[in-house]
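Need 8-oxo-dGTP diphosphatase's 3D structure for a figure. Predict it.
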Amino acid sequence: MTERIVVVGAALLSGGRLLAARRSAPPELAGRWELPGGKVEPGETPEHALVRELREELGVEAEPVERVPGEWPLTAPYVLRVWIARLLPGSGEPKPLEDHDELRWLAPDEVEDVAWLDHDVPAVKAALTAWGAGG
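Structure prediction for 8-oxo-dGTP diphosphatase:
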């Protein structure tokens, strides 16, 4: 059996809004929206991967607040796990540095206004549910 590879996603929340990132690559994903994040490297915890990925992809310092219950299958052997995260004070505004060409802060009633990657749809819904329950 192939070992699963964890991909972390950040439900990055600020001012009552969720950050969405539009993919610029690879071509088959370009133009679709996702939660920012990436693959957990060997020897790295998912939380450390989340912090590293947000630094690399968005140029910000953030911290995971809580894991969203559940996980979502991606193309095998990958699986998506999501954390609610927040920007650290003084981190600045996120910028699309790697694999994205646009970022948008979405209010809860705007979340369905973007074309999410299929596997991010249930993850985003779960994150909003967890966010509503906890914050």
